[in-house]
């Protein structure tokens, strides 16, 4: 009987930053564009053989769904994003910038889980156990069913799982955990892939809900190989401004629920709390009408939020006037300025223009174009818009207003908060009977909208 030949070695090149592979060496990674990160690796090619199955295949109608029922995390806003709560055996990746509050949020989730007499294990690789205990004392998260371990070795983490047998596992973070039998530094492509695979395999076989904390790069994407986002069930991004206590959790991938939901939180020294009605954080209450302001209605996932846009126009002697934005897309503000100049006669080419939002809100949706235009025209003429007005609509280069999605939900939210007049694009299908107490003004272009609000000079 002939001897089997040894596995052939296939030469390949892999990026150490993101795990991208190519058949030949290149100086720059084709995925993450990093220079000098592509190195040669040797991978054996073998033929897969049939192995015994773990359990026989059954008709899909006979598969039980009781094991995958949602369980509340104890944090309602997080349950909203997840689609109902935590699913046993699910692998969740939570990524965010340093200091945004990822550890505080997950410690609160672990504490709430232990309050329901469900055991939770919190594994920290970035802090000592005493540091996490101090945070738990400050936020009221000390419970008998909440176990804490400070480990950076994968084998030790798996041993803790065997000993504690938790229903919830939190790993903070995957970039600090390493497998001793593999080469590479913690956080490298090889280490992250192996650690993630081992944790997810344990989560699926033991029905342990696993939440993994991930780092982000300077451009906001998740650090490490892209395969990490593919193998997990849920990918969450934790967002927030360092100058504000307001935080948002956004679902980028969710196998158990919608991917267009956001959760709102307030981060303070006492911990993190859910914000069920965040609109008041982004709308300023003026005692009298102020020029250069307008309230927009934007959609964060399925949730309508009202946010105030403010504009300031001042004369300048500089050759090139300043265009400064805060919380708004600078390119869209520049486009709105060009449309106002061309189609409405609002000449701001010799003035400094400053635009901002209230409360640190970030408005990138095109539906806020009309509110930006109203604020700029009001600041230019010095005439405040009428009280109780909201404006929504996408602005085209020809000055036309385009329809916006989810208009009934936006109007209902504005009416709930006391606004009585809404300026919307024409032919939107909205009428006064849809929202009680709300007067809806449909206009076809931005010039008609500004003329209707008496914000044009002359």
UniProtKB/TrEMBL annotation:
Keyword Cell inner membrane among record annotations: no
Pfam families xref list: AAA_25, ChlI, Zn_ribbon_LapB
Motif position, RadA KNRFG motif: 253-257
Domain RecA family profile: 67-216
Keywords: ATP-binding, DNA damage, DNA repair, DNA-binding, Hydrolase, Metal-binding, Nucleotide-binding, Stress response, Zinc, Zinc-finger
UniProt cross-references to CDD domains, sorted A to Z: RadA_SMS_N (cd01121)
Record flagged with keyword Plastid: no
Residues reported in the UniProt entry to bind ATP: 96-103
Region (Lon-protease-like): 352-458
Family of this protein: Belongs to the RecA family. RadA subfamily.
Domain observations: The middle region has homology to RecA with ATPase motifs including the RadA KNRFG motif, while the C-terminus is homologous to Lon protease.
Known role: Plays a role in repairing double-strand DNA breaks, probably involving stabilizing or processing branched DNA or blocked replication forks.
Protein name per Swiss-Prot or TrEMBL: DNA repair protein RadA
């Amino acid at each position: 009987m002939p001897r089997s030949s040894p596995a052939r070695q296939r030469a390949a090149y892999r990026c150490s930053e993101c795990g991208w592979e190519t058949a030949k060496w290149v100086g720059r990674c084709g995925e993450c564009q990093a220079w000098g990160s592509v190195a040669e690796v040797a991978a054996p090619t073998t033929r897969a053989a049939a192995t015994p199955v773990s359990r026989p295949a059954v008709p899909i109608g006979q598969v039980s769904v009781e094991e995958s029922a949602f369980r509340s995390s104890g944090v309602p806003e997080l349950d909203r994003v997840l689609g109902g709560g935590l699913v046993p055996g699910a692998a969740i990746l939570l990524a965010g910038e340093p200091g945004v509050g990822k550890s505080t949020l997950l410690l609160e989730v672990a504490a709430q889980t232990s309050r329901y007499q469900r055991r939770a294990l919190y594994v920290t690789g970035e802090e000592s156990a005493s540091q996490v205990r101090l945070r738990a004392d400050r936020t009221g998260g000390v419970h008998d069913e909440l176990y804490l371990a400070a480990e950076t070795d994968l084998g030790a983490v798996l041993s803790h799982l065997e000993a504690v047998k938790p229903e919830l596992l939190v790993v903070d973070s995957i970039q600090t955990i390493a497998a001793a039998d593999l080469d590479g530094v913690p956080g490298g492509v090889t280490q992250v892939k192996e650690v993630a695979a081992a944790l997810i395999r344990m989560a699926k076989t033991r029905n342990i809900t696993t939440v993994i904390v991930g780092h982000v790069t300077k451009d906001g994407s998740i650090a490490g190989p892209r395969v990490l986002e593919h193998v997990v069930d849920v990918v969450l991004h934790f967002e927030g401004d360092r100058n504000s206590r307001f935080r948002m959790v956004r679902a980028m991938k969710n196998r158990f629920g919608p991917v267009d939901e956001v959760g709102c939180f307030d981060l303070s020294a006492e911990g993190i709390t859910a914000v069920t009605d965040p609109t008041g954080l982004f709308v300023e209450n003026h005692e009298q009408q102020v020029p250069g302001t307008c309230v927009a209605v934007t959609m964060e996932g399925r949730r309508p939020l009202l946010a105030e846009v403010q504009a300031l126009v001042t004369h300048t002697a500089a050759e090139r006037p300043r265009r400064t934005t805060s919380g708004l897309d600078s390119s869209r503000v520049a486009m709105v300025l060009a449309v106002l100049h061309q189609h409405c006669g609002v000449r701001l080419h010799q003035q400094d223009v400053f635009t901002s939002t209230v409360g640190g809100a970030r408005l990138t949706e095109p539906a806020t174009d009309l509110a930006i235009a109203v604020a700029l025209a009001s600041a230019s003429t010095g005439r405040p818009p009428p009280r109780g007005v909201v404006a929504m609509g996408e602005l085209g280069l020809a000055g036309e207003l385009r329809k916006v999605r989810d208009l009934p939900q936006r109007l209902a939210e504005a009416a709930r908060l006391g606004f009585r007049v809404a300026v919307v694009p024409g032919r939107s299908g909205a009428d006064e009977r849809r929202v009680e107490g709300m007067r809806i003004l449909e206009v076809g272009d931005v010039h008609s909208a500004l003329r209707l609000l008496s914000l044009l000079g002359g």
